[in-house]
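S., here's the first fold you wanted:
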Amino acid sequence: MTKREDSRRIEELRRLLNQYAYEYYALDSPSVSDAIYDSLYGELKQLETKYPELITPDSPTRRIVAGSTTKFQKYHHKRRMISIMDTFSDQEAYDWVSKVRRYAEKNLSIATLTELDEVNYWLDAKMDGLACSLHYRDGLLALAVTRGDGMVGEVVTDNVRVVPTVPLRLHDDPVFTEGETEVRGELIMLRADFDQINRQLIKRGDKPFANPRNLAAGTIRQLDPQVVASRPLEFHAYDLLRGGVDDAMTNQAVYEKLLQLGFKVNPEAHLESSFADAISYAHRFRTEVQPSLPFNTDGLVIKINDRKLYDRLGIVGKYPRGAVAYKYPAETATTKVRDIVLSLGRTGAVTPVAVFEPVQLAGTTVQHATLHNADEIARLDVRIGDTVVIYKAGEIIPQVQSVITGLRPADSRPYDFIRAMHRQYPELEFERPEGEAVWRVKNPGDAITITVQAIKHFAGRQALDIEGLGERNAELLVSAGLVSDVADIYSLTVEAVSKLDRFAELSATKLVGEIQKKKAPPLDRFIYGLGIRHVGAKTANDIAKHFTGLEDFSDSTIDQLEAIPGIGQIVAESIQGWLSDESNIRLLDKFAQLGVHPVSVRAGGSLAGISFVITGALSVSRDELANQIRLRGGNFQTGVGKSTDYLVAGQRVGSSKLAKAKQLGVKVISEAQLMEMLG
């Protein structure tokens, strides 16, 4: 995008994020999830980093979002309720540790550095609720305040008093039951209680709440405490403040003291002796602990256990240096639709696929999502150029959840599915069978023709050059049901082919043999043979030079493809559209399962056209040797046949393979001789 386009995008993001913040803080009615807000916020931050001169004072990245409601009295926190910096990977978490050390080396004493070397960490679930501060005077609850913007919150004392897990009087303690004591924690609602309330709302015909956090936040801001009392909130404490006493404690001791004072704390909170152990637990927490917790969490809080050291490290911006939140990859994200392409399956079904800007989702980079059918496109009203919310829920390919219409370009036009079909496949007629959501090729014979033409192209001279597999034989194989896609040709047997008209055992043996000889084709010929739109022989060769193999090519991004000389946006998006189609993903998997391994054209090709069989015990694994042979253009076979050039014999070789090699005139070489050939 140009700077002008980026500038316009920055303005749109600022406007929308400020609107979302207003809905969340002032109206208590957020219209999007935290994950969507965070994704858009991250995009804005990235653009402002790229163009610092475009940063304005009102940008959401320049401040902690404010907006207390006027329903409740405001309260200025004596000690700021700060946020904790988020990290989303091991690398980001270790970067935090490095920054803490660099700060300590520059600003703190040698003794502090020694403490850092020996530091341990207090870990607790990052509960997804509403942060709240409770103030006790001489052991009695006197004031309850929401976090607000961290500086100014709202007084909700009357509502908090009816929350059963909030002690109205602290348990007897000679220190904390005299004077001022502040306890901080999270107001949450358990998932089971949330589900029950939503069931009741739906039964009454009322709108259900989106998630437990929204319900907890909306409940605590009710004007009538009786409404609050009817909804089962819980308060989980995590911090204790009182003069200088807290400085002498560890975070572990704070939790123990909170329990003694009568508060509920997370029983899973515990100590780790090193940061590496803390990260290891963070991985286990997601798979072993988080699913069994009765409340929602969005990560793990990792704090330096020593409170004195924690305080000495201070605050940077709006975060404490002594703590970090380890958050897990988002299951939802936002991105921009670059194109919508149509894919034609072997049954003649037409499937639309959205191609979009690469984005991190659930720990992986994704750049396409199935749109299923024309009805789904119409329901979502998704258009080229739209910013969309995508999600991943155990699917190989992510799904489009919704469109953020507030970021829609002014010149946007609805996607015309019918027109796109005829533009992409002008030679075919389509219909939508009654009762179905999918458009299909009108004449079933056309679907057979498509498969036949695909095989003819794959076997052609510029592709794999498979002798004997022309249009007539391809049509015989498809019509007989022996082949339903291109990869199926590698599963053909002499017995099955010899039963077809025009084939005898000799001709069937020859055809199957020719096909099997092409299990390690050059990558460029294989890519060309796939028949991807806009990818001719030269383009396929250009592409193949930039990838180590088929898997590398399959995982390519649009940016990687566009970086190849001669590959523009249209070609890159066409390739991504093909690679993103579920039927094509299955096709490539089938090739691999049938032993088809295209060879990188980066390799020297010193063994091009030479076929090997390996037998006996070797010093190197058979798979590794087979891979090295393929990388040099050679073919790896599982059994000795007429097309075999060399039998590589290791130790304890069976007599049958040696006898067959001698009978067929196949040269027998040792592992050492093969290594010489491999160079």
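And the second, which I think is the more interesting of the pair:
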Amino acid sequence: MWGGFKGLLSFDPELARWVLAAEDICFKNPVFSYIFRTGKCIPITRGGGIYQEHMSEALERLKDGSWLHTFPEGKVFQEDVPIRRLKWGTASLIARCPVTPIVLPIIHRGFDEMMPEKYFYGRRPPLPLCNKNLKVVVGEPIEFDLPMMVQTAVSASSDHVTEDTLQEAKWPVISSAGQKLDETAQRCLYTALSQKIQSSLESLRLLAKRL
């Protein structure tokens, strides 16, 4: 995030990426809010849903052609286990952006030793621990045939649409790849997009273990 501070002349803030950051951690007081906002962080309420206010801001940044860093798992997992089912926030941004974004998967390994979640009485250390090995593995860009995925989602959702599901729908109808998607179709599409990202991240996780 420090590349976003205009006072650091060795960095270009225009090249720094935007990042979705947990509101309850990074924006819990005015000082933190100022620092993280200046560092190009967008506050996200965990559990607030994919159509919360600041997700629209994140979508605007993508429309502007900016880099946006997301954490698709939605929380910190330090266990050495397969990548869990992803939240749909990242998938919804991909689907709603007028131009399909380039998605670059990144895995890091070693933060569980550098900043363990349960270091002292179940809390993190105040500062990162020294002399720890940290690996960052960057994969190939993930390609999405969004028109095909949208068509598949629309076809799959038609088998599940009933009068009750239409009445219970709470999400707005969106446009993706030139088609209108109701809530049922969106759920099918977001599941497919998330599974593709999850598969790529899991491959990188296994690669990081071997490096």
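Why I say that: Strands lie at 18-22, 41-44, 68-69, 106-109, 135-138, 174-176, 179-181. Residues 111 and 134 are 7 Å apart (CA to CA).

Talk tomorrow,
H.
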